[in-house]
Amino acid sequence: MPNDIRTDASLLARLRAAATHPLSSAQLHSQRISFIYGNLSDESAVTRAQVENELARIEGDSVAA
Fold first, then answer.
1. Model pLDDT for residues 16-28, shown as the tens digit of each residue
2. Which of 14, 18, 48, 52 is deepest in the core (most CB within 10 A)?
């Protein structure tokens, strides 16, 4: 395994900036949907729309169109 791996400084700066940039509520909602849906088993019959609807219900929002 090589020990001389270098990470581009500009990439690290962009990653730091992105990590400190606050997410909008819509972005956070979208990430939650992706996380939940992505963690379902391949055999799951749950659809992305069902995940969206249930998350909206849990969050107390109306169903996203």
1. 999 999 999 889 9
2. 52
- DSSP letter at 63 equals P
- Which DSSP letter does residue 24 get? P
Total residues found in the chain within this entry: 65
**CA-CA distances (angstroms) from residue 58 to 9, 11, 53?**
41, 37, 9
Query: Contact 40/46 with Cβ under 8 angstroms?
Result: yes
Model pTM score: 0.64
